[in-house]
TrEMBL record, chains A, B:
Protein name: NADH:ubiquinone reductase (non-electrogenic)
Reaction(s) this enzyme catalyzes, per UniProt: a quinone + NADH + H(+) = a quinol + NAD(+)
A matching Pfam family: Pyr_redox_2
GO MF annotation: an example: NADH dehydrogenase (quinone) (non-electrogenic) activity
SUPFAM superfamilies, per the entry: FAD/NAD(P)-binding domain
Protein's organism: Chitinophaga niabensis
Entry's family note: Belongs to the NADH dehydrogenase family.
Keywords noted in UniProt: FAD, Flavoprotein, NAD, Oxidoreductase, Transit peptide
Residues of the FAD/NAD(P)-binding domain: 13-332
Length: 443, 443
């Protein structure tokens, strides 16, 4: 009974798997192309991942960083969106297997992004918390607020420490931004909301295996970031790796241990490969080998972009491009132009990443930013960070809601969305037999 | 190990169960009283229930109508909040049993509000959807959007109708407001987001057993409301009761059937009684018999307010006051004053409800309102409705976010928060053993 119901067309069909930065920019670039675009995503929204950490730390409502994909493309007549989980590719038949049936393609673009990478450490994978999806960020917010509430019920200092210590692993932008936001929770929210809790029992740690934080930026920015984190009271442990974590005690490579029930892992990401490809095109981190026009090695009509693509033709990036939004955005836009070129019989143009710079916020009035040879830090970098993020956020409503949250937080030092959304024992929705199991249990 | 950890005090302790309209107004009224106030709620936020229907219909983000209880009382030094599920009362010992341990009280106030009442019809209770909590509203939003997405995958018209027909049961303000909001989804969102879906297959029904909608208001307002619903295309069935509902087919008392997978039940509410009371004080609808100062019949220090209280001393309301926010607010405030009186040795003053009027919105530019002998309808009532709701919403941030959503929706006809928040198969958070089961599964 279930079938994708995508109207057949005389035009070649471009199927895009994933509505992230790469997928939506590719789809937009194909707006006036003589193709039929089919966009698939497991969610019905595009997620603005760079602000996920603010949802996790009760600074923004989840809805403010998610934008309905149907809204983005409501004026694009050649695009059909379907909410679907893609299972596998049968490339010899040009068919995609999904949970809503089989979908034929002429061009297939894999833009599935990445997920948390625990590098095969099952003990850590089981006990640590990743943050790559909206539901994960909401769960972290619920979990963190619950630790505060439950700490009030304890008398044993060691158990309280376990609940109030928060450890971020990975000194990249996500780890730094999370650590900064947790430190601000400690500084501005804890004393007001929980005056009974001894603040010295709450500590924020940032653990980084390498010699510096924000290693992709300049030495000066790393130093600035360290100073900012130190000012906020974050304990940064450099050249330190995680050895073991059983859910309550973290063992570090330097022999130290930290008691914590909250290990937030942002030390790595890996691709989301589809089934149906030979091992030869898949890399250990789950991404796929592509040529200079994002064509997957050995295929003539299957492309991968963004975090899923490993492109090695740029001498500046011998190990491939970093897994960042800008690469996905640029590859999406250029692949769109290239598909249009190929339809007109022109050759595709090789992709070359244009580094627009990078930035990270540490906390109130503190950020670091580098672009076009300019290095900023402190207040001006923080303003630049906010402006860039607001401008890139999709949708007028979302921009306004995020702006108001920031404005409000700046002047009140408050975080408005510190609510725990859970089902109470007494008011579980009666979701009947006709509702899918997934709807009933997986909010 | 777990215990409430509420500091002992020489002052009498007032324990308030429930942070709804009644509970928070009582707690506020006790700010400068020589008592220790202990506020318990299963959630860490106060919910502004009158706007719940807008969350359910993708018009507002859940966070905008929830306000952290700790934020409300951050400057009230005599108040201690604990997130707790209250199980039972041992009134002979003045002790409350909760999931965080036992709590002693001098005054106990039951302000637990109400839940959906299916009047003992188990088949309907199993298959219909109630809307009394934030998680229920979010689940309805997810569910409704999922019906739209899944309709696209079907060819059988009967199955599509099942997914696109939405039936509200109960012609009170909640039913009317939900029906109006669904009709607006149909009118403004469906054609833009789902141009492939035939709009005539989506129908909104409002089923009311009595002879008119908004029966608590004037005949003229009922007529106005009917006209407004008719304009929006809502099919209103008066003098019609629900007989049976198996999850896909609804049988009505007039012999008709409606194919629907979405039956939203707002035909009644019932109290949330605590264990430990004799049947003699509990009424069939779960509320408790109280005297004119909200004292529960037969007790000297246990009070019930709001939806939980049935007060019969007012000759204007021989069956007791309606279960509305205003009664809870006024009873909370007055019980606070009365507890202060009793501590000064004065007698408590009898409660008398001051009806401030009532209002309901039907849709864009359409509402009905009645207060102080004045009857409004149409645009001016709609503006009044928005002003009253904005002013009563707690918190500057929430007011701004709600205002922006309304402003945006008014000019764009769009609904910004139409996102489905669910766990994807591939990115379930790894919530380890140390996280409580409730945190892991009950977002």
């Amino acid at each position: 009974m279930i079938q994708p119901n995508i109207p057949e067309s005389d035009r070649p069909r471009v199927v895009i798997v994933g509505g992230g930065f790469g997928g939506i920019n590719l789809a937009k670039a194909l707006k006036h192309a003589p193709v039929q675009v089919v966009l698939l995503d497991r969610n019905n929204y595009h997620l603005f991942q760079p602000l996920l950490y603010q949802v996790a730390t009760a600074g923004l409502e989840p809805d403010s960083i998610a934008f309905p994909l149907r809204g983005i493309f409501k004026n694009q007549k050649n695009l059909h969106f379907r909410m679907a989980e893609v299972k596998a590719v049968r490339s010899e038949e040009n068919v995609l297997e999904t949970n809503i049936g089989e979908i034929r393609y002429n061009y297939l673009v894999i833009a599935t992004g990445s997920n948390t990478n625990f590098f095969g450490n099952n003990q850590i994978a089981e006990n640590a918390i990743g943050m790559k999806s909206l539901i994960e960020a909401v769960q972290i917010r619920n979990y963190v607020l619950k630790q505060f509430e439950e700490s009030l019920l304890l008398n044993d200092e060691r158990l309280i420490r376990r609940k109030l210590n928060f450890v971020m692993v990975g000194g990249g932008p996500t780890g730094v931004e999370l650590a900064g936001a947790f430190a601000e929770l400690r500084k501005y929210i804890l004393p007001k909301d929980y005056p009974e809790l001894p603040i010295h029992l709450m500590n924020i740690f940032l653990v980084e295996a390498g010699p510096r934080v924000l290693a992709s930026m300049s030495e000066a920015s790393s130093v600035n970031t360290l100073k900012g984190l130190d000012f906020l009271g974050v304990k940064v442990l450099l050249n330190t790796a995680v050895k073991e974590y059983d859910g309550t005690t973290l063992k570090l490579s330097n022999g130290d241990t930290i008691e914590t029930q909250s290990l937030l892992w942002s030390a790595g990401v890996k691709g989301f490969p589809l089934e149906g490809f030979p091992d030869s095109v898949l890399l250990p981190n789950g991404s796929m080998k592509v040529n200079e026009v994002n064509l997957v090695e050995g295929y003539s009509n299957i492309y991968a972009i963004g975090d899923m693509a490993r492109m090695l033709n740029d001498e500046r990036f011998p190990k491939g491009y970093p897994m960042v939004a800008q690469v996905a955005i640029q590859q999406g836009a250029q692949l769109g132009a290239n598909i249009k070129n190929s339809l007109r019989g022109k050759v595709m143009k090789a992709f070359r990443y244009k580094d627009l710079g990078s930035m990270a916020t540490i906390g109130r009035n503190r950020a670091v930013a580098e672009f076009a040879g300019i290095r900023l830090s402190g207040y001006i970098a923080w303003i630049a960070w906010m402006a860039v993020h607001l401008l890139n956020l999709l949708g007028f409503r979302n921009k306004l809601v995020v702006f108001i949250n920031w404005f409000y937080r700046y002047f009140t030092y408050d975080r408005g969305t510190r609510i725990i959304i859970k089902r109470g024992a007494a008011n579980i929705v009666k979701l009947g037999k006709t509702m899918d199991q997934t709807t009933a249990s997986n909010i």
